[in-house]
Amino acid sequence: MELLDGKLASQAIKDELTLRVAELKAEGKKVPHLAAVLVGNNGASETYVGAKVKACGEIGYRSTLVRLEDTISENRLLTVIDELNNDMDVDGILVQLPLPKHISDEKVITAILPSKDVDGFHPQSVGRLVLGQPSFISATPHGIMLLLEHYKIDTRGMHAVVVGRSNIVGRPMSILLSANTNPGNCTVTLCHSQTRNLGEICKQADIIVAALGKPEFVRAPMVKKGAIVIDVGITRVPDTSKKSGFALKGDVKFDEVAPLCSYITPVPGGVGPMTIAALMKNTFNACVERNGNE
Predict the structure, then answer these.
(1) Count of domains for the chain
(2) Residues 106 and 153 in one domain
(3) Is 52 in the active site?
(4) In the predicted model, what is the mean pLDDT of the chain?
């Protein structure tokens, strides 16, 4: 069993981007600028946005953090996004989800200019992905593909089972794994809450991508020997033995499943860092495409 170390792989990507940003600066060209919008003070969202802003600083990007109260109106938030769309110095915009219930995620995502949609959530980005055209890819699925690429895992002809059908992870993951690329070229089964015989289907998989948000859902009887297991889930579970009062659990019961695997991602330290690395790549590409820097 080998760990797919997201910290190691993401650092390699960030190191490469740092060099490319240094080259842009040396040539007097514009460096990438990411604007992050945080609505309210959700603890998990604060952590995620903080990590993204920190990564920008490490690589040499400019970043702007727009903090808004959770009582902000939908119209006011859309106005903020419009201002960022029209700010010529901003290359990428992300709005941290989830949003308060009175605000439509769909309206907010659609309001972001596709050329600045570094989260890859805009319908135009998703449509281009489905058609196999160049696009910004949702950061978590993109990060998983970059992780497989970093470890030089040849996935051609494998049976991949994706558990979870969200528009952010499950659906785009199934498209990427089935694409005529490597990593890719898999035969993909997309499973969800209504799938019958889920355990039996997972047991047939060469690759399992667990993205359903249920702590330790995937257990040893669901995994065949030699499988590659990608754990996307990360849930805070109460744990009085921890100073924080909680432990982070993935969708896979790691201690049970790991001995069966050829490769497996840890939680934390697996998919999470790769999500940020993919976002940084998207932001760099947005800057280059918008400003003709390369």
Answers:
(1) 2
(2) no
(3) yes
(4) 95
Q: Residue 2 corresponds to which tokens in the numbers above?
A: 């080998």
- Burial group, residue 69, by CB count within 10 angstroms (0-12, 13-18, 19+): exposed
Report how far residue 284's alpha carbon sits from residue 289's, in angstroms, rounded to the nearest whole number: 9
- Res. 246 pLDDT band, cuts 50 70 90: confident
Say yes or no to pLDDT of 17 above 70: yes
d(CA 15, CA 181): 25
Q: Calculate mean pLDDT across residues 265-288.
A: 97
Annotated active-site residue in 5, 14, 52, 117 = 52
Summarised one tens digit per residue, pLDDT across range 79-127 is: 999 999 999 999 999 999 999 999 999 999 999 999 999 999 999 999 9
- What does the H/E/C string look like for 178-243? HCCCCCCCCEEEEECCCCCCHHHHHHCCCEEEECCCCCCCECHHHCCCCCEEEECCCEEEECCCCC
281 located within any domain:
no
Banded pLDDT at 291 (limits 50, 70, 90): confident
d(CA 218, CA 157): 23
Catalytic annotation, pick one of 5, 14, 91, 96: 96
pLDDT at residue 293 in the model? 58
* 214, part of any domain: yes
Same domain, 35 and 99: yes
Single out the catalytic residue among 119, 249, 251, 253.
Answer: 119
Question: Is 116 an annotated catalytic residue?
Answer: no
Per-residue pLDDT, 239: 85
Whether omega before 183 lies within 30 degrees of 0, making that bond cis, reads yes
Tell me, yes or no, if 119 is annotated catalytic: yes
Q: Are strands 159-163 and 207-210 parallel, antiparallel or unpaired?
A: parallel
